Amino acid sequence: MNIHEYQGKSVLKKYGVRIQEGLVADTPDKAVEVARELSQQTGTKWYVVKSQIHAGGRGKGRIVGSEQRGVALAKSVEDVRTISNNILGKVLVTHQTGAEGKRVNKVLIAEDVYYPGPSEPKEYYLSILLDRGRNCNVIMASTEGGMDIEEVAERTPEKIIKEWIDPKVGLQPFQARKVAFALGLEGDAFKEMVKFISALYRAYAESDSSMFEINPVLKTSDNKILAVDAKVDLDDNALYRHPELAEMRDTNEEDPLEVEAGANNLNYVKLDGNVGCMVNGAGLAMATMDLIKLSGGEPANFLDVGGGANARTVEAGFRIILKDPNVKAILINIFGGIVRCDRVAAGVVEAYKAIGEIPVPIIVRLQGTNAEEGARIINESGLKVYSAIEFKEAAAKVSEVLAELGV
Ligand code: GDP
Ligand code: MN
């Protein structure tokens, strides 16, 4: 699960990681109010207005229909108001959002940490993630902060430092020193970076995260080390251990159909094709998607209804698939092992009637316990539903239906 920058920073702060301080707002008035408050707390005279969306590249991204960037410096509270007004409720397009962009509902008003001083502020890159190949966590660091790290990895891979950490042993102090040294730091900045890395690792491990990406980490002009940005990805399977983190979920940032599916305990992933499918079991779902492609269609989704398909789950699945305007036909492919085919067939008929007229052809392939009985129920229902028992039959029916529709 991804969370917003302001939420990620609050997790870091809780573990003693120094951050660029800020306060969040959802209206221009509130933005001005929190800017004044922030100025009192931190003494900052300038502010950074940062769009809160689940995507990076905001600094280079633009608000649709204007020149406004997704991250902008404000030199007065009036600037804060103008910029917040330009951003809030508008759509921001970055290289990570796709052309449709994302609507900005909140802005983070942050203190300006690039102030002048004895040395130049310098940006670094730091991330911690799971390296499945090595069964380890890995810290990645680079002096090329603020840039797209994929680009750095491609052009100058030698500029990415990697340090692997055994999760059972944890981060050893010498490892944090090694990374700070490799970044070319010395004196106070070196010590600060060692502290920063140690606290960051603890935050990562104790919050059961699967990725932290801090880009940039800033060395301020007076040698403080702090997180300017925070991309935090939490492990969904561990959220039950962190109710306070689970609450940070923002469903506005997720695909609405996937949210609805999750609420119904369905595993749904939206795809771009024209044939919706509803299947029990992930393996059969993959095979069914292959079948759709072999029949000349493209799967519109992955949908696993799980082991106990009944009228309620089938109906929920139907409703979700039908909300996708690209769907031209639906293939239901259920193996009746634990669940009996006649039960599923009755569920399909019941769900169909509950929804009313379904505007696209449906092919139902039921195989396993009571398959013939299932086919009979479908055929005698009088609904526009085709039944099949064999995989091949279902494939032929999908091709036929697509040909009739001319797609
Ligand atoms: P991203 O573009 O979505 O990764 O957003 P970031 O939080 O990384 O911010 C983008 C850029 O804004 C940074 O790389 C900085 O150059 C700039 N920025 C962020 N905070 C400040 C600040 O306090 N002062 C100034 N002058 N620039 C900042
Ligand atoms: Mn960033």
UniProtKB/TrEMBL annotation:
Residues at which substrate binds: 280, 337-339
NCBIfam families per record: PRK00696.1, sucCoAbeta
EC supergroup of this enzyme: ligase
Alphabetized UniProt keyword annotations: ATP-binding, Ligase, Magnesium, Metal-binding, Nucleotide-binding, Tricarboxylic acid cycle
GO molecular function annotations of the record: ATP binding; magnesium ion binding; succinate-CoA ligase (ADP-forming) activity; succinate-CoA ligase (GDP-forming) activity
UniProt name for this protein: Succinate--CoA ligase [ADP-forming] subunit beta
Family of this protein: Belongs to the succinate/malate CoA ligase beta subunit family.
Gene3D superfamilies named in the record: ATP-grasp fold, A domain, ATP-grasp fold, B domain, Succinyl-CoA synthetase domains
GO terms classed as biological process: succinyl-CoA metabolic process; tricarboxylic acid cycle
Pfam families on file: ATP-grasp_2 (PF08442), Ligase_CoA (PF00549)
Cofactor remark: Binds 1 Mg(2+) ion per subunit.
Gene Ontology cellular component terms for the protein in this record: cytosol; succinate-CoA ligase complex
Catalytic activity: succinate + ATP + CoA = succinyl-CoA + ADP + phosphate; GTP + succinate + CoA = succinyl-CoA + GDP + phosphate
Sequence positions that bind Mg(2+): 215, 229
InterPro entries named in the record: ATP-grasp_succ-CoA_synth-type, ATP_grasp_subdomain_1, Succ-CoA_synthase_bsu_CS, SUCC_ACL_C, Succ_CoA_ligase-like_bsu, Succinyl-CoA_synth-like
EC id: 6.2.1.5
Domain called ATP-citrate synthase/succinyl-CoA ligase C-terminal: residue spans: 278-398
Quaternary structure annotation from Swiss-Prot or TrEMBL: Heterotetramer of two alpha and two beta subunits.
Free-text function comment from the UniProt entry: Succinyl-CoA synthetase functions in the citric acid cycle (TCA), coupling the hydrolysis of succinyl-CoA to the synthesis of either ATP or GTP and thus represents the only step of substrate-level phosphorylation in the TCA. The beta subunit provides nucleotide specificity of the enzyme and binds the substrate succinate, while the binding sites for coenzyme A and phosphate are found in the alpha subunit.
Domain annotation ATP-grasp fold succinyl-CoA synthetase-type: ranges: 2-217
Pathway info: Carbohydrate metabolism; tricarboxylic acid cycle; succinate from succinyl-CoA (ligase route): step 1/1
Cofactor: Mg(2+)
